[in-house]
Amino acid sequence: MEDILQRYKRAGGPRPKTMLAWHLYGAGFENLGRGGRPIEVPMPQYGPDELLVRHDACGLCFSDIKIIRVGGDHPRLYGRDLAREPIVQGHEVSLTVMGVGENLRGRFQVGDRFVVQADIYYQGKNLAYGYMFVGGLAQYAVVGKEILEGDEGCYLIPVDEEAGYAEIALTEPWACVEAAYSVRHRTGVKQGGLVWIVGAGGGDYRLDGPFHPRKVIASHLPPGLSRTLGELSEAEGFELVEVEGQDYGAEGFDDIIMLGHQDPTVIEAAQDRLAKGGILNIIASQPLRGKVAVDIGRIHYDGLRYVGSPGPETLASYGRNTRAELKPGGLAWFLGAAGPMGHMHVQRAIEMPDGPRKIVATNLRSGRIVELAAKFGAQAQKRGIELVCLTQEALGREVYQEQLWEETGGRGFDDIVVLAPSVEATEVAAEYLAPGAVLNIFAGLPRGTKAELHLSLVYIQDVRFVGTSGSRIRHLQRVLEKAQAGALSPNRSVAAISGICGAWEGLKAVREGRFPGKIVVYPQIEDLGLTPLSELREKLPAVYARLKPGEMWTEEAEGELLRELLPR
């Protein structure tokens, strides 16, 4: 006889007439659902070019908290009036097809399983799942052409039918981690782009590589470079506009090349005119006369980059230090590592086949860093990696900073990943960069957020500042491959579970940083409240019995959970 779990997996049984969903009607938890409960709404209807999908598991993310804090003012909601058009959050989602529109038959079948690539682009616009589309904190949703025929193809990625629902849902945040180490650096001036070359009145500079822009604005250039640009303009056919001084007012430059400038205010003013994905290229042999207020929000969200060299070549700097991955055998520091995403970064670094030889994981306060050490210490030791866990709270500020230098032998870190959304954390981290280091601003801060950084390091020591937001299909596919091969275990990230009615308390726990791992909601289970895995021993002993040693979530535990708690 077919049991309830088997029927669930094949998407069998009658469909309900109503479903539960967590609508967000504005900023604040008081606008999430009604009275701390989800809303009961009619089941959605789907058309001939649409799918009806069932949400099987949904991971909760701190990005969800950012939406709750600001409501329709969130950049990805484009000023949406949530009181009139509420959203349903949840972008870390595994789902099953429950209904197929007539025009999609043959391409999709009832029972097909997918993970959602949350960053969905349609006609050039980001329409992320759980933001502009109904997300995983609804029991069901309708998926249409924007997702099935997006700019990069279909954003539903097929998964192994035997994989666990939580494991698949958590490949989405893992894909964001993977993306952080897969930055594709542009290695030259953007072809067909807009370039601004800003001189300081002297020097001997050369264009030493491919140079095919659409238009060049030239300000205060030395005579030799001015003549070269004129000749190239005639030969290549790009437009050349020479202007007086350094106050050209246009914005949206793909490349800005600064020649010989030492005044930080000039660099700062120039960077604000970069387009999304723009590069500021500093050619200078002397340090700047102070720090530069760098827009770290745009590094994270807009992919701004800073390169440079002592010169006199102006284009070779694009190809210097294009490393994105952690340095093999290097020293890595994860700052703000005690949260769920920090655990993922540390786990990935330990499990890399050719990763760092030493990992320093820090947190401002001590409590959760102890859990990180307990969780990963033995695995790191087994792989010959030194794992050091420190907190400023335990050591005091001065001793903490001295200890960081001692851990590097006084040379600095090869890789620093900032997981705390803090200007101060970024500024502190930048003081510990070794030559050729990469500072990864993983935690997103709003555009316009500036940190005081020694930008001279970019051209004197080939330091790079990078950041990424979200992921792409290729990152998600890479994580799925790793999970299927056993090289990565997303289930290891699970710290607590709930049914759909427990999502409100789960989101509050994310806001408060209550767990060092991820909270996974099972939308088809209704009344299970937020439950740490350790409490399953008393609440659901048969589920607890199927955890791995160390109270690690498993597919077997998930299966038992669904058998016990799915509605009959």
Quick summary:
The chain is α/β, with parallel strands linked by helices and about 575 residues long. It is about 30% helix and about 25% strand. The protein has three domains: about 5-180 and about 475-565, Alpha-Beta Complex (Quinone Oxidoreductase, Chain A, domain 1); about 195-320, Rossmann fold; about 330-465, NAD(P)-binding Rossmann-like Domain (Rossmann fold, 3-Layer(aba) Sandwich).
Give short descriptive properties of this protein.
Quinone Oxidoreductase, Chain A, domain 1, globular, six-stranded parallel sheet, eight-stranded mixed sheet, 3 domains, single chain, Rossmann fold, alpha/beta, 568 residues
Topology, pairings included?
Layout: H1 4-9, E1 18-21, E2 23-24, E3 39-42, E4 51-59, H2 62-70, E5 87-88, E6 92-100, E7 113-116, E8 121-122, E9 125-126, E10 140-143, H3 145-148, E11 156-158, H4 165-169, H5 171-180, E12 194-198, E13 215-219, H6 223-236, E14 239-243, E15 253-259, H7 264-271, E16 274-283, E17 292-295, H8 296-302, E18 305-309, E19 331-335, H9 340-351, E20 358-363, H10 367-382, E21 386-391, H11 392-395, H12 397-407, E22 413-418, H13 423-429, E23 433-441, E24 450-453, H14 456-460, E25 464-466, H15 473-484, E26 494-499, H16 503-512, E27 518-522, E28 531-532, H17 536-539, H18 541-544, H19 555-565
Parallel strand pairs: 12-13, 12-15, 13-14, 15-16, 16-18, 19-20, 19-22, 20-21, 22-23, 23-25, 26-27
Antiparallel strand pairs: 1-3, 2-5, 4-6, 4-10, 4-27, 6-7, 7-11, 8-9, 17-24, 26-28
Helix pairs in contact: 5-15, 9-10
